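tool_call: predict_structure(chain=1)
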Amino acid sequence: MARPIVGIISNSYVLNGDYPVHAGGVMNATAIADVSKCMPLMIPADPRFVSVEELLEQCDGFLLTGGRPNVHPEEYGEDATEAHGEFDRNRDAITLPLVRACVERGQPFFGICRGFQEVNVAMGGTLYPEIRDLPGRMNHRMPPDGTIEEKFELRHKVRVSEGGPFHKMFGACEVMTNTLHGQGIKTAGARVVIDGQAEDGTPEAIYIKDAPGFTASVQWHPEWNAAGDPVSRPLFEAFGEASARFAQSRAIRRLKSA
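tool_result:
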């Protein structure tokens, strides 16, 4: 039986200073293939090449990956400052309407880091440009030095609501996660439920209230060691199961209409 197709949203880079590319971490594809049991499909997040409508028809679910560029603050009514960092307006043009369409269709998506922030902005929320500058907040950015293992090591606790969807996936209300982000949620968008927070109050886990499909998103990076980490694995398993259900229901609808 064919695997469900998960579109992995890529980021724009310039390779070797002069060669434009769309790219995504291998760990994202590994998590989708090995843990979610879906077929990973890298998506060039640029409206010159793909449309939201085409993506919705071709893919069964979407992984909204992390990335260095941030959502442009114009998308939530603010001016850009140096603190907001780099941007990728082409990705904004694809992912924000894609999130809203998925919410309405019940099509699964899983947001990670920037993807988590995209979900909030797509639903009308706002972001802080730099969490570590806020009173009482810790530095959530990755360590500037060290090995990749050290950068992705577990660094703080996240507490989720008892009886909520993340508690059900994790089997615990308190878990340890990595942290590699600068921005974070300022105000939650419409229907965005903040279901998990770090020790300093930073929102870390959200879902969309009353959405018919899988909408779990997290601020940390569960794609690192997804198969071996007891917090990451159930997230990708649940997302894969949701994508499989959506693929099956769509196949049934197409058979009935044939």
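agent: The first strand starts at residue 5 and ends at 9. Proceeding to next step.
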